Each structure stands twice: as structure tokens, then as C-alpha cells.
Automatic annotation (TrEMBL):
Keywords: Signal. Residues 1-29 form the signal peptide. Belongs to the glycosyl hydrolase 13 family. This is Pullulanase-type alpha-1,6-glucosidase.
């Protein structure tokens, strides 16, 4: 906190201890279990099945009557169940059954508890609540004869919010500087004591009883010093009181490998690279027009021989490198944002180069279809320099492995230089953020939040275990202080690092209210006050609906349907699956789609069905793509391929509505991203094996065009315009540089044929992939690679300059965009024809030239758009238009855009 120095004082609850009489042994322990007792599993203190949701109410999933129920608490944590009895010294809080159960307001706040019984804290014991939360807590139910029926631990997130959040959410946490003097503050309401370990010495901290925040004001000499907090707290995960030495969850700087926090003022001029204060950003592109390149920092430059800082933040300052030259070309064409995969402090990469391992074999020697490369890479994967980074350790410090020196503040300076480099190349910067889980929880070595307020920051299941539906230890942004951490962290990235946008990993695991609070906080940032125009910061994320919070089970989620109309976009998988075919987890990766030859150029996979089945599925895919091209609008009406007038929301997508957006910009289109196979690899599995490299190039452009030419924002994985491959790896998060590195020079290939991908996530697909990896038709040359990029850039330029692709409202889309041949005898399987204002766009995914006659346009003049007529693709230049009949003639495997006049 900022402000005047405070007198250091460690407070305890010893006075409360003296004021509360101990339980008699008979009140703690029943003499013996009776026949009416619950099963032995009901006497399990390692679980936490009771939930203390506010200072007066405990919710508990129990049935049947009991003579009494109590909360028993012990500061020293010595309560145990022995021979069916509760043993140990404890004190009690009496509970009474709440007439009518949970209130309507409580059920609304905790919908997943609506079937639970409710118990009210006895008014005589309410003065004991705060003290009870600083030790072990056990909920018990007993029969009339004193037999212990149930004993379990207690979840306390709700009562902690009820007691402390009003004051705590207003507190400034972490290191706060005023006139060079730091104040360090930590929220730890359940801690029995907290002190500061600074340079190896202990400094007392003072507890604010209203907020539960412990703080200490320091001298100027503390600036740049290493520190940790020493927190004494009850830890349910190990069933004992522990003393944790833990870094600051609000850290702004760290030592190498995150061993210590460093007290750093991010406004210190020494941390500002030259020109930082005067940084001129490219003109802000509204989200609905955003063209985004998704990029991993290490992938970008680690194998770029022209980069002076391979694998580092500073590679984005190497203006003469092949990678930066390519990014500038994309920016010149109309790409507006680079989306960086996670760049906060990552828990799974050794930050010092000396501590990392590298493959100890010649990866270039084995055959393209060998399993030797993946075996060698896998041996060192756990300790190499590579990970996608979805393993957050500290949310608000740049990752050290990308810095020239991971110890101290070089990472701060160099992250800022990276932002400068991208902005100077005409690109704004989006940061991928992962607040939905932590790399560890409980007492694990890399646990932070859960060592400070155990059981609060992580989302707990009904038995008190940590939910892991995200892959790792889920967080709980529905709890006030986790929600505050999300908002505070993002404001710091926006203000102190001038990040221009944020992409939320698994955003559907956040409450909608939390994401809207982020939007509100960013909108409040101004150039005059903060050096940032927060209203121009873009937000989008993964609005997937799954896990313990699915279908709004615990709160209104930030999912696709719920975020419609908020101005915060969600990824739309509808168009992705339709254009590629099948889904990311198909047993047979040969399931085809619109841009991979379904029906029009069938492969040998039996999974595609009969020709009739293929045709029917292809037409359904075309309807999905039509909805996607509108920006996934729910209310948009059109004639589907069956000739029926439907809304976008009435088109089925695996049981969900294809259209869910309220306005253009609600849905983000993409054909590939870091997850699942790259687009090139997906098409490698799906296109017929004898498809030539030149034809594969054309299908790559066509697939990317379905996203690029849709209403609303679109994203492409960096390198997809260069036919980027990961040698068929469907989950390359830990596959090292060998499978992930970008190749900006076409002479280095596109990454295909680097061996079979790692077995852990790909072995079941090896029989499908092995024959492909040696195929000459899947080894593109420079003409294919460079031609793909040039044709893609023509389309990006066209999309960025034609206002018709940037319609602002659903009404404008309805009136100006149509599919004139849909549902008629003239609709061709494998072809989508879209009329958009004064443009006509024809997506011809078939292996043959196609004529598309729109009778209503007869005698209206059209010509191939100048960007294509004078562009890089010689094939599309052969497109033609016959005015006398209104017929557009488009070559095979092409997307052609015609302009009226």
C-alpha cells in the first residue's frame, strides 16, 4: 500500500482464544459409533464437504436429522477421528438447521449448492467466526446419544469473501512505491502470522482486521531487495499448520527461477528503454476488423539465422531479421495484431541456460518418418527451454527464459523493448493470459496462492479437492480476491507494459462478471492519467463450456453464448471444423471437410461414409460456413442448403447453435491455432495422398480465406501463410524447438518431415502419418511456400481496405450479405457464393473450375478485384465474369473476389 510508514505489529488472536471456553471431551468425542451412524467414509477430515458460505450460514450436503451439528475449530490443528470419535482439543460454534434451507439469494449466488441443507451459526457464537477461520475447521453432526454421525472439513471461500472482501478488494497489494519508499502488502486473512523475509532477515508485518491484509512500510533501501513472505497457516491439503516461505503473488520482479520476489517500482526510469514514454503506437484497429497473427516468442526466432537474439524478447528488435521482415509485410498488408502465447512467469521452463537440457543426438540424420527424433526430443523435454507456457507461476512478471538475463529486471526492460519493436513494425501486441489455473496447488513446490490462503484461490469440488478440468489446478475467479487479482494483473500489463489486447485462455472458466470487470477497469485507463487509452485495448478468449462450471452451474460463465453483445469476442470453432472436417479428436484424422476434399475429392478413409453421406455432410458444412461468414450471427436469416429459411441460431453445430453472436465482432474466426494440428498438417491427413504440393498450397489459401473474409476478427497461427508444419504433431506444447520452430526462409522448408511426432499425444496417429512424412507431394518448395503467403497477403489487403468486410451491426450484415445460390438447384457442393455489398466472393474448394450463375445480377458489370487481378496468384487471375448471364467462372481450388463496376 502507498501512504505513510506504519508501525510494524504482528497481531494474533490470543485474546480471542482466552475468551472462548474449550469444548468438554464429551462434546468433541462420542463414546462409540451406533448402528445409526453414517458409513465410515462420513468420518473423513481429509475431505471438506461442508461449505461456510457467509458468516451466518453453512451449506452441507447431508440428509436426515441429527440431534446436533457444530463447527469445531482448533488453532493448532490437532483434531482427528479416532475409533469413530473426534479427538483433540477444540472449540465449538453451534449450528441450527435453517428453516426453509438456503435463501433465494444464497441459491442464486451458489446455484451448485441449491440442494444442500442450510445451517445457521448460533448468534451466541458469532463473535468466534473470524478466529475460527485461522485454524483447523471440522463440521460435525451427532445423534441424541452423542454418537458422531458425520465429520468433515469445511470450505471457507464464501465466508472469507463475506467477512473481508468489501475492504480487501479496495486494498493495493504487492509492492507499492511512493517517493521511492515501498509498502509491501499481502492478503492472508486465515494466517496466524505473517512476516517479511528481506535479505535473509525477518521483518514483522501488521494485520488489518477489516481486510485481512498484512502490510509493512519500508525504507528506500528496500528498493531492489529480494523478499519472501513467511506465512503460518492451516493447510487442509496436508492436515496441519505449516509455515510457508512464499513469493508474492503480486510480484513485479523475480530472481531467476522465481525463487524470490524483488521489490521493484515499475515506474522507475531505469526500467524504461529509450523512447518508452514517447512510444507511438500503430493506429488502433477495432476488434471487429482485427487480423491477428498468433505467435510463440521462442518459435519466432530460435532457428532464424538472421536474428541476433534467437529465442528472446529482443529478437523483435532485430529489424533486419527474416522474421521481422515477414511481420512487416503482413502488417503492410493489413495484419493489425501479434498475439503472443503466454509470456508471464512460466512454471515449467528452467530460466538459466546452464540449467537446461538439449537433445544430444543429430536430429537431421534420421529419416523423415523415423521415431528417433521424437524419442530424442522427449528425453530432454522436461528440462529444455521449450513450453507453450500455459503453466502460470506468477501472473504479472515477464517470463525469464526469454530475457538475456533472467535474474532481476532485464526481463522487464526487454519485454518493453519487444512491445516497442512490434509497435514500430506496425503491429499492436496481444498477450495470451492464463488466469484459469495455476501450475500447482497445495504444498507443492511451485504453489504460490494456495500456500497463502489455502483452499481459497483454487476452485474446489464438493469434497474439497481442487478441480482440474482445465488440465491443472483450477483457480476460482468467482471468489472476490481471485477476481481482483485478474483485474489488477491485467491493468498492470496494460499500464506498465503497454500491451494492446488480451486473449483469455479457457475464458469460459471465468465468470462473465469477472471479464466485464476487466473491461470496465481497462476502459477507465486514459492517456492523460495512465499513458494508455484503455478503451482501445481488445479482449477475446476461449468461450468453451465444460467442466465443473459447465452450463452456468456455479455462475454465469464467459462462454460463447453468454458473451454475445459484450464487445468481447470468443473463438468460434464452427467454421474451423467445417473447413477442416471432423473434429480435433477424431480417431481417424482423414475425416474431410469443405477445404479438404469432402465429396468433391474424396480420400481413402472409410470414416467419410458413402458418396451420398459425404454430399449431405458437405452441404451441412457449407451452412456452418455461411453462418461463420456472417460473424456467427444468431439472428441472421438465410436459406440453408436444404432450401429452408433459418436463423444462424437454428443451424446445428454438434447439438449447439451455430450462430450465437449478437453483432459482428462477437465471434473470432480461425482455421488453425497452436492447439491441434496446424492447418497444413490437418490438410496433409485429409487431402488425397496424391494431391500435389501446388494444389495443397491453393487449399491452404482457400481454408485461410474462410476466416480472413468473414465478418468480425480472424486469427491465424504464425507461419500458416508459409505452409507451416509441425510434422503432424497435434499437441506440440512440450515438443521442443525441433517440431515447433518457425522457418521464415523457404529454403529451410516448412517443418514437414521432421520425423514422427512425439508418442505421448500422437502415437495412435502414427500409422496414418508415417506414409505421409516421406511423400514428395507433401514437401513444398519455395514457389509453393512463397506463393501461399503472397496470395494470403492479397486477401488480407483486400479485407482491410474493403468496407463491406467491416459491417458494424447485425442489421447491416442482414441487409448487405447474402448467399444467393444457397438452397437452390444451382448450389454446388464444394462451392460457396457470397454477395456482399458491391462484391461477390466465390469459394471454390473443388478440384474443377466452377461457374456460378446469379440470375439477379444479369447485365450488372463485375470484374475480378484489382488486388487479385494485379496480385500474386496467377491461377485466380483466370477468373472471369459473363455479364450477359450474371455468371462467375472461378478456377479450381480458388477464392475469387469480384467487384461491381
Amino acid at each position: 500500500m502507498t501512504g505513510s510508514p506504519r508501525r510494524a505489529l504482528v497481531t494474533t488472536a490470543l485474546a480471542l482464544l482466552a475468551a472462548v471456553a474449550p469444548l468438554t471431551p464429551s462434546a468433541i468425542a462420542a463414546p462409540q459409533a451406533s448402528a445409526a451412524a453414517d458409513a465410515p467414509a462420513a468420518l473423513d477430515l481429509s475431505t471438506s464437504r461442508a461449505q461456510w458460505i457467509d458468516k451466518n450460514t453453512v451449506a452441507w450436503d447431508v440428509q436426515g436429522a441429527a440431534a446436533s451439528q457444530e463447527l469445531v475449530y482448533a488453532r493448532d490443528g490437532q483434531l482427528t477421528v479416532k475409533d469413530g470419535e473426534l479427538a483433540g482439543e477444540g472449540r465449538r460454534i453451534r449450528l441450527a438447521p435453517a428453516e426453509g434451507g438456503l435463501t433465494d439469494a444464497q441459491r442464486e449466488k451458489y446455484p451448485h449448492l441449491k440442494g444442500y441443507a442450510a445451517f445457521t451459526v448460533d448468534p451466541r457464537d458469532r463473535d468466534r467466526v473470524r478466529h475460527a477461520l485461522t485454524g483447523q475447521l471440522v463440521a460435525t453432526r451427532s445423534s441424541a446419544d452423542g454418537t458422531l454421525l458425520t465429520a468433515t472439513g469445511v470450505q471457507t471461500q464464501g465466508v472469507l469473501d463475506d467477512l473481508y472482501s468489501a475492504a480487501a478488494t479496495k486494498a493495493a497489494l504487492g509492492p507499492q512505491f511512493r517517493d521511492g519508499r515501498p509498502t509491501l502488502a499481502l492478503w492472508a486473512p486465515t494466517a496466524q502470522s505473517v512476516s517479511l523475509e528481506l535479505d535473509g532477515k525477518r521483518v514483522a508485518m501488521r494485520r488489518d482486521d477489516a481486510s485481512g491484509v498484512w502490510s509493512v512500510a519500508g525504507a528506500r533501501s528496500w528498493s531492489g531487495k529480494q523478499y519472501r513472505y513467511v506465512v503460518k497457516v492451516w493447510a487442509p491439503s496436508v492436515q496441519k499448520v505449516v509455515t510457508n516461505k512464499v513469493t508474492d503473488p503480486y510480484s513485479t520482479a523475480l530472481t531467476a527461477d522465481s525463487r524470490r520476489s524483488i521489490a521493484v517500482d515499475l515506474d522507475d526510469p531505469k526500467l524504461a528503454p529509450k523512447g518508452w514514454e514517447q512510444l507511438k503506437k500503430p493506429k488502433a484497429t477495432p476488434l471487429r476488423d482485427a487480423q491477428i497473427q498468433e505467435l510463440h516468442i521462442r518459435d519466432f526466432s530460435v532457428e532464424d539465422r538472421t536474428a541476433k537474439h534467437p529465442g528472446q524478447y529482443l529478437a523483435f528488435t532485430d529489424t533486419a531479421s527474416d522474421g521481422m521482415k515477414h511481420l512487416r509485410k503482413l502488417a503492410d498488408a493489413g495484419t493489425s495484431y501479434v498475439h503472443l502465447l503466454p509470456a508471464f512467469d512460466i512454471g515449467t521452463i528452467p530460466e538459466r541456460a546452464a540449467d537446461r537440457s538439449t537433445p544430444d543426438c543429430d536430429l537431421t540424420a534420421p529419416a523423415p518418418d523415423s521415431d528417433e527424433q521424437q524419442a530424442c526430443v522427449t528425453k530432454t523435454a522436461a528440462k529444455d527451454a521449450y513450453n507453450w507456457g500455459y503453466d502460470p507461476l506468477h501472473y504479472t512478471v515477464p517470463e525469464g527464459s526469454y530475457a538475456s538475463d533472467p535474474a532481476g529486471t532485464r526481463r522487464t526492460v526487454e519485454f518493453r523493448q519487444m512491445v516497442q519493436g512490434l509497435n514500430g513494425s506496425g503491429l499492436r501486441t496481444v498477450m495470451d493470459v492464463v488466469y484459469n489455473h495455476t501450475v500447482a496447488s497445495g504444498q507443492a513446490d511451485k504453489s504460490v496462492l494456495d500456500k497463502i490462503v489455502p483452499g481459497y484461490y483454487q476452485r474446489l469440488l464438493p469434497d474439497g479437492t481442487v478441480a482440474t478440468s482445465t488440465c491443472c489446478a483450477n483457480t476460482a475467479p468467482e471468489n472476490a480476491m481471485m477476481g481482483k487479482l485478474v483485474v489488477d494483473s491485467l491493468v498492470t500489463w496494460a499500464k506498465e507494459y503497454k500491451v494492446d489486447g488480451f486473449r483469455f485462455d479457457l475464458m469460459g472458466h471465468h465468470p462473465k462478471a469477472n471479464i466485464l470487470a476487466v473491461r470496465k477497469a481497462l476502459d477507465a485507463l486514459t492517456l492523460e492519467k495512465d499513458g494508455v487509452d484503455g478503451k482501445k485495448i481488445v479482449l477475446y478468449g476461449e468461450g468453451w463450456n465444460f467442466g465443473e462450471i459447465a452450463d452456468d452451474a456455479r455462475f454465469v460463465q464467459a462462454t460463447q453464448k453468454n458473451m454475445a453483445g459484450t464487445g468481447i469476442a470468443t473463438f468460434s470453432d464452427r467454421g474451423r471444423d467445417a473447413v477442416r472436417g471432423g473434429g480435433p479428436f477424431d480417431e481417424d484424422p482423414g475425416v474431410q471437410g469443405f477445404a479438404s476434399g469432402l465429396f468433391t475429392d474424396p480420400n481413402a478413409s472409410k470414416a467419410n461414409g458413402t458418396p451420398a453421406e459425404q454430399k449431405a455432410r458437405l452441404l451441412r458444412y457449407q451452412d456452418l460456413l455461411k453462418v461463420a461468414l456472417t460473424g456467427n450471427l444468431a439472428a441472421y436469416t438465410f436459406t440453408d442448403s436444404a432450401g429452408k429459411r433459418v436463423k444462424g441460431s437454428e443451424v446445428d453445430y454438434n447439438g449447439a447453435p451455430a450462430g450465437y453472436a449478437a453483432a459482428p465482432g462477437d465471434a473470432l474466426s480461425y482455421a488453425d491455432a497452436h492447439d491441434n494440428e496446424s492447418l497444413y498438417d490437418a490438410l496433409a491427413f485429409k487431402l488425397p495422398a496424391d494431391t500435389t504440393a501446388a494444389e495443397r498450397s491453393r487449399m491452404q489459401v482457400l481454408a485461410m480465406a474462410t476466416a480472413t473474409l468473414a465478418q468480425g476478427p480472424s486469427l491465424s497461427q504464425a507461419g500458416s501463410d508459409l505452409l507451416r508444419s509441425k510434422s503432424l504433431d497435434r499437441n506440440s506444447y512440450d515438443s521442443g524447438d525441433w517440431f515447433n520452430a518457425l522457418h521464415w526462409n523457404c529454403r529451410d522448408g516448412n517443418g514437414f518431415g521432421r520425423g514422427l511426432p512425439p508418442a505421448a499425444d500422437n502415437k495412435d496417429k502414427w500409422p496414418y502419418g508415417k506414409p505421409l512424412l516421406t511423400s514428395a507431394s507433401l514437401t513444398p518448395g519455395c514457389a509453393d511456400i512463397n506463393g501461399t503467403s503472397a496470395a494470403y497477403q492479397d486477401l488480407v489487403k483486400l479485407r482491410a481496405t474493403e468496407p463491406a468486410f467491416s459491417l458494424g451491426t447485425a442489421g447491416q450484415v442482414q441487409s448487405r450479405l447474402s448467399f444467393p445460390l444457397s438452397g437452390t438447384a444451382a448450389e454446388t457442393p464444394g462451392v460457396i457464393t457470397m454477395e456482399l455489398g458491391n462484391l461477390v466472393v466465390v469459394f471454390n474448394a473443388t478440384p474443377d473450375a466452377q461457374k456460378q450463375r446469379i440470375a439477379a445480377l444479369k447485365d450488372t458489370a463485375y470484374r475480378l478485384h484489382p488486388f487479385q487481378e494485379q496480385g500474386a496468384d496467377p491461377v485466380v487471375k483466370s477468373s472471369s465474369y459473363e455479364r450477359s448471364s450474371g455468371t462467375f467462372d472461378v478456377p479450381a481450388r480458388s477464392v475469387a473476389v469480384f467487384e461491381r463496376g
